[in-house]
Amino acid sequence: MKKFILKLLLFVSLLILLFGLFLLFLFLPSTPRASKSLLFAEIKKDSLLIATPSTRIVFVGGSNLSFGVNCQLIKDSLKINPINTAIHAGIGIKYMLEKTLKYIKKGDIIVFVPEYEHFYSDWNIGSPELLRTVIEVNNRSNVNLLSKKQLYNCFSYIGIFILSKFNPFEYINIEENDVYGVNSFNEYGDVDAHWNLENRHDEITSNTIDITGYNPEVIVEIRQIMDKLQEKGCIFLVSYPCFQETSFNNSIEAIKKVEEDLKNNTFKILGTPERYMMSDSLMFDTVYHLNKQGLERRTKLLIEDLKTVLHGIN
Fold first, then answer.
1. How many whole angstroms separate alpha carbon 89 and alpha carbon 146?
2. What is the DSSP secondary-structure string of 204-244?
3. Residue 48 burial class via C-beta count within 10 angstroms: exposed 0-12, middle 13-18, buried 19 and up
4. What is the pLDDT of residues 104-138, one digit of tens each?
5. Average pLDDT, stretch 181-188?
6. The domain that contains 306 carries what CATH number?
7. Is residue 166 part of a domain?
8. How far apart, in whole angstroms, are the C-alpha atoms of residue 68 and residue 241?
């Protein structure tokens, strides 16, 4: 019996030690390589949300926005201060919208542009990008924005996250990515690092979105956050992402399902899916990332649609 108790105490002590080490490595500072990733641009974008004066137009969504808008054109045309908060679709639109609520001001115009795949995934998605964002980028200050399910869904990535702290290549020969780096964004939050680069069409893999994966919960949840934003005195608009023409044609049924449900839920909508479908030649390196010519075309379309909708509201 005595030996059993000693073994039990040893086992429990080891568990406590391992748990302590787990917490230690979980909360270590980011590695030099990780700190240069585009995820850390959230710090700059949050400062824009704090400091930019009204009247403001705030773009919320994935990289179809960060790689697809020229905010300088919007500012010059609409005489409104633009903020492009978009970073990475993998962060998930629940986190994007919940975080926007923290910084929004009365009179702000929110332009929400998710990727089509967001309507075909879990609202409470967990991902490596979301885990790193809440743990490292904002030093756990936004962990409270995550649901229990999101935390659970992020748990499977913790092992890889911790192991990255032991990878020597995270600490030596560090070079920031020429396009996907923390400094790839301009003063409005747009990625401009690729504006003078050649297209990377060899990196593009066309998408086909399967309509059977549609998640109606996403629309319901977006409406709930929209109501909270409108209670704060904001205008909430929804638009469609720029999307490669080949992938658009491959996914037309799935895209039409999104359009139908947005219309049926009486969102104020900018444009149509077809309007923001973009020729393959206008894509930079993914089906959602536009080259300079493409993003200027998309921005002009957005400006036209914003003028129409805002005139109707005012």
1. 16
2. -------GGG--THHHHHHHHHHHHHHHTT-EEEEEPPPEE
3. buried
4. 999 999 999 999 999 999 999 999 999 999 999 98
5. 97
6. 3.40.50.1110
7. no
8. 9
Which tokens hold the place of 179?
């396009």
**By the 8 A CB rule, do 235 and 108 touch?**
yes
Distance separating alpha carbons of residues 159 and 167, to the nearest angstrom: 13
Total number of domains in the chain:
1
Which residues are within 8 A (CB) of 6 and not within 5 positions of it... i.e. 6 or more apart?
A: none
Asked if residue 97 lies in contact with residue 112, where contact means CB atoms within 8 angstroms, the answer is yes
Higher pLDDT, 167 or 277: 277
Q: Which letter does DSSP use for residue 142 in this model?
A: T
Q: What domain range is 258 assigned to?
A: 38-126+182-313
Residue 249 lies in a domain: yes
Q: Specify whether the CB–CB gap between 118 and 218 falls below 8 A.
A: yes
Query: How many angstroms separate the CA atoms of 287 and 203, rounded?
Result: 10
- 52 contacts 82 by C-beta, under 8 angstroms: no
Does residue 296 belong to any structural domain of this protein?
yes
Mean pLDDT of the chain: 91
Cβ atoms of residues 126 and 157 within 8 Å: yes
The pLDDT-based confidence of 310 (bands split at 50, 70, 90) is confident
Query: Residue 268 falls within a domain, yes or no?
Result: yes
